[in-house]
Amino acid sequence: MNINALIRKYGTKVEIDTIEKDVFFDTQKSSRYKKSKLYSSFNTKVILTKEIINAEATIVVDGKNFLVIETIDSPSRNGKIVYSETGIFEDDFIHDIKFYTQSSEMKGCNLPSKSDLPYSEYKARIRTEKPNDYLQFALQGAKVPTHKITIMYQDGINTSDLIIWGDRKFEILSSENIDEQNVFLEMSCIEVLNV
Q1: How much of the chain, in percent, has pLDDT values that exceed 90?
Q2: In CATH terms, are 3-90 and 95-192 the same topology?
Q3: Which class would CATH give 95-192?
């Protein structure tokens, strides 16, 4: 069955950059991105379309925003694009966070300088976590990560910064540029008490 017939028979309506289009969800290929550390924790899908999808497109599926991972075009013998296969991931970067530099006088007390403004603001995804060896860490008095906070990759963020989310405060214990791809920056953080 060709792509046009698949879309006609089994197609689903989605919004691509606010325009409603029929696409076919290729469920057999949707697990492709789960093998990559980069996208393993995301809700990923593969869609087939008759049109080429722009790399910066926003795709709305069942009311949720998805962003493009990659688009693979399938040309015919004469070079005309027959269909596009697009990997997408759910954009669940919905939390507003701010980064502060810790006050030099109060370093280690997890307090930003009162006069400081946040030096940057981002949309983030925030997940709670508790390592399997939590008790061992705690008994040794080590700081144990309580949350994973992920943003789209940014340079210049380090462990001396504080993250403020609403009225909650997080110290960055470590950060990882996942797979060194400059796509996501994932930070292991510990929530600290407001003093």
Answers
A1: 51
A2: yes
A3: mainly beta
165-172's contacts with Cβ under 8 Å and 24+ in sequence apart are 165/95, 165/96, 165/97, 165/98, 165/124, 165/126, 167/194, 168/194, 169/110, 169/193, 169/194, 171/110, 171/143
Residue 93 phi/psi, 5-degree rounding, is: -85, 80
What pTM did the predictor assign?
A: 0.79
**What three-state secondary structure class fits 114?**
coil
The helix or strand, by DSSP H or E, that contains position 184, with its residue range, turns out to be strand 184-192
How many CB atoms sit inside 10 A of residue 86's CB?
Answer: 27
**Tokens 């110290």 appear where?**
171
Look at residue 159 and tell me whether its pLDDT is greater than 70.
Answer: yes
Provide the token pair at 63: 């009311």
Q: Determine the Cα–Cα distance for residues 178 and 162; give it in Å rounded to an integer.
A: 20
Could you give the 3-state DSSP secondary structure of residue 138?
helix
Sorted by where each begins, the domain ranges of the chain are 3-90, 95-192
In contact, 184 and 38? CB cutoff 8 Å: yes
Distance, CA of 72 to CA of 55 (rounded, Å): 11
What is the CATH topology of the domain spanning 3-90? Thrombin, subunit H (2.40.10)
DSSP secondary structure code for residue 166 in this structure: T
